[in-house]
Amino acid sequence: MEILLHNVDLLVVLVLLIVGYSFGRLAEWRHFRSIRRREDEYGDLIIVTSKTPPAMNVPPETTLVLGSAVISVDYFKRFVANLRKIFGGRLGTYESLLDRARREALLRMQEDARFVGATMIFNARFETSSISKGAKQAVGTIEVLAYGTGVIPRA
After folding, report:
1. d(CA 151, CA 54)
2. 138 vs 20, 41, 146, 153, CA distance in Å?
3. How far apart are CA 145 and CA 130, in angstroms?
4. Contact 122, 65 (CB under 8 A)
5. 91-125, pLDDT tens digit by residue?
């Protein structure tokens, strides 16, 4: 009887891993698809890391523009990352998480720039932080903040 209970427990864990993997991949795939579509929409908005804007005949108006994204690690990614820690190597599961968060924050900054009428963002920067920790200080949720100076041309 005890062996049967252990087998049921193992089966439950495997089912949860498969469900977590499936739904996590589906959510990630949808998010990447949304990111690619919106990146095409904002392709004409120039973003540079230079601290000073280019010289213009009429000095532009400038304003702070920003975008923030908070993304949580799904259970399957955390499980795979913990396995990877045992053997060492790249944590590809977290790399895709950071890529999504950075790109989403950048898109939200571009959306903010469009909203205020900016045609260019200069001095663009990123800040990344872990805002919640799981068991044993494992990454649980990350925030990426993208910010820069929006250049609004004057007529």
Report:
1. 10
2. 18, 35, 24, 45
3. 12
4. no
5. 777 788 889 999 999 999 999 999 999 999 999 99
